Amino acid sequence: MPTVEVLLRRLDPGIPVPSYAKPGDAGADLVTTTDVRIPPGERATVGTGLAIALPDGYAGFVHPRSGLAARVGLSVVNTPGTIDSGYRGEIKICLVNHDLRDAIELHRGDRIAQLVVQRVEHAIFREVTDLGGSHRGDGGYGSTGGHAALTGAPAYETED
Ligand SMILES: O=c1ccn([C@H]2C[C@H](O)[C@@H](COP(=O)(O)OP(=O)(O)OP(=O)(O)O)O2)c(=O)[nH]1
Ligand SMILES: [Mg+2]
Predict the structure, then answer these.
(1) Which family does it belong to (predicted)?
(2) What confidence tens digit (pLDDT) does each residue in 24-80 have?
(3) Where do the domains of the chain lie, and which CATH numbers do they carry?
């Protein structure tokens, strides 16, 4: 895995420096600094106790952890949260409980999301009147079919 140095401050010295659980992992786990209870369907913003300085040309993306998502319905409201290279404040995470029945109890130090550091580029937007042709053209929003149907409707549209 290629690496990039990211300057980091621990605003909360009791919180570990983020680390990758396995050598090929894309995300380094982030923890909550506080205990929090998220009722069904509600959200809560928690601190991670970390501030970073990403190099120019990089951004951080805060993704949910799939195990917690599948097990209890925990996700990130604005997934993936975008950490700009110029941001020096505490990385915060806006969590959401997608479960409709049970609250989620989180405790200080629990790993609740993961930070993916990626290269990014700025576009130079050049306005034109003709974008040129492509195979897809302007077909979007399910134009290729195969999307799930609502209850009672056929799974695939038929030609007749
Ligand atoms: O999950 C997140 C998302 C963002 N941020 C911080 C870092 C980021 O650089 C800054 C701004 O994020 P964003 O641009 O997504 O939010 P905004 O609502 O557009 O705020 P702003 O007007 O400050 O850009 O907030 C976090 O700590 N956690
Ligand atoms: Mg913004």
Answers:
(1) Belongs to the dUTPase family.
(2) 999 999 999 999 999 999 999 999 999 999 999 999 999 999 999 999 999 999 999
(3) 7-119 (2.70.40.10)
